[in-house]
Amino acid sequence: MAHPDRFLLAGLMGWPVMHSRSPALHNYWFARHGLAGTYVPLAIRPEGLAAALKALAPLGFAGCNLTIPHKEAALALVDEVDAAAGRIGAANCIVVRPDGSLFASNTDVFGFIEGLVEADPSWRADAGPIVVIGAGGGSRAAVYSLAERGAREIRLLNRTAERAQALAAEFGVPITALPWSERHAALEGAAMLVNTTSQGMVGEPPLDLDLERLPQRALVADIVYIPRETPLLAAARARGNRTVNGLGMLLHQARPAWRAWFGIDPEVTPDLGALIEGTI
Ligand code: ATR
Questions:
Q1: Among 19, 75, 97, 213, which has the highest number of CB atoms less than 10 A from its own CB?
Q2: What is the pLDDT of residue 85?
Q3: What is the pTM of this model?
Q4: How far is the CA of 198 from the centre of ligand 1 (A)?
């Protein structure tokens, strides 16, 4: 919680970390709330994570975010892990508690859902079958969020089928793992499609997916936000589907962190969206 006499400190631990938009995002809120504080990128090698986390409390950090490659490793290095982070197997937010102990949570879950609701206020997880492409870390957070929100059928497809099967077995109903070769056909009757793979990201080829069978009313979401419109989203928009990119998730995942660190629920304003978009 914010202390009036203290310079407020938080940061992002990653390796690499310098490409991140998070400092711009959090520092916008410090300015907006008139608070003396800063959010710094912390380039931490994997072998340095334990020492870096231990240093948060003595350095006066309220907490930090975690990105690649620390989200999974941190779970074993903190004092307590919340249920969602434990289930997903990844944490992206660390809070330094008053006694100096560390609490890890996963705010991507909140960010993912808020990004969808912001794009479509009438969005519901139980509106119909949801197709999720990918079975990595991004997929685990998305699938957990969707199941939490009441999704009744999640069709999970991954290039490496075993990973999708393992995730489905681990999370249980309502997930069905389908073979990669069925990804085009799996779109039949879907209310929503989510890409959680790196395909379509700048420097990567487009996701190899034919949208022909996807109903036009389906919402198409991509957790990628660089570029703002992936080839998948462009193709979906061209055929009349509503689309949402990963920017909303990036912005909204930061809100619960602020609540936990500083006792403030900061706003995702159009200004802030434009500021971050301008850096892409
Ligand atoms: P993250 O934790 O960011 O999700 P990840 O665990 O490496 O990263 O997962 C990346 C996802 O993108 C995986 O689902 C991966 O599929 P595999 O499990 O088969 O590797 C998917 N992916 C990566 N390259 C791909 C490609 N060329 N075609 C389809 N899927 C791909």
A1: 75
A2: 97
A3: 0.94
A4: 6
